[in-house]
Amino acid sequence: MFYSDLSLREVLGLTDSAAREAWLALRGDPGLPASRFGPSSLRMFTPRLASLTWRGKRALGRRVPIINLFNRTPTPVEQGWSVRVTQVRDFRGKRLTYDSHNGTDFAVPPGTRVVAAAPGVVVAKRSEYNRGGLKLYLDHGDGLLTSSNHLARSLVDVGARVARGQAIALSGYSGIDALASFGAVAPHVHFNVYLGGVQVDPFAAPGECSLWLGEHNLPEPARTSEQDTEPTRFDDVNVAALLAQLRDPARRTALGAIEDPAQRAWQLVIEATTYPTRFAVPEAGRALFSAAVRAPRLTLPFAANEWNGVAFADDEGFRG
Prior knowledge:
This protein is of the alpha+beta class and 320 residues long. It has helices at 8-12, 18-27, 47-54, 176-181, 236-245, 249-256, 261-274, and strands spanning 63-68, 104-107, 113-115, 120-128, 133-139, 144-154, 161-162, 167-171, 188-195, 198-200, 309-312. It has a single domain, classed as Distorted Sandwich (Glucose Permease (Domain IIA)). Helix 5 (236-245) runs parallel beside helix 7. It is globular and about 50 Å long.
């Protein structure tokens, strides 16, 4: 599973700006509170699983271990990004998550092929050592966006149209997370889902609709499909209004200079969900969408010829 041509520098995302961005996570800036850690953060450690995964082993054969789920009771964003385990509840009512966790963590060996979870368009590529390392964002139409974080290498360019199941990247563990937990937390792909300008849990709590294709809350691996999708469309007036809500003049200038209107709009949504305190209003990304409906549209971001399904790290009989 481990691609021999990946360097350790790629896997860990050690770019020239990594040290400066790491300091941003630890110290914060005028529009971004510092991150918070504590003794409860140790609850996330799974050293056995980490050791196996770093060595390119599959701990559960063809099932992908999920080591963290979306927290349904997050701490307020104004208090800073928290990797503590204090007030947490996943979609099952259990505690496989941490305070500020807003995605799904799939533990896979570095060099694993990451694929498109639905047909779409690559609208952004970001490398932020302080928040997720190397990340790719795909627009799947109708206000649905996904991102794969902690990547080692991108295999596609911004603007590319991709089919479901098409390889878009090689996994790694890029970002400050690996530096803080090396050897104790397995390398993984942090998978985010955005619907209507906000981050959502693709798994369904009671009374909700799952965003996963397949049996209810049992996501199936991706099979290559050539179907296309119509990209999400935005109103220029609403995009300009959202840009004006961004407090940081330098970021406002940088995002405003993006020529492609759809890419500019999505970059604003990404900024508003990654750094919400940089905007004058909460959940600012919602302003670009009139409605967004939960529907089963996603497969796993991993290929069906390599994986069969998932398992939760707190399942009975699983030992991380």
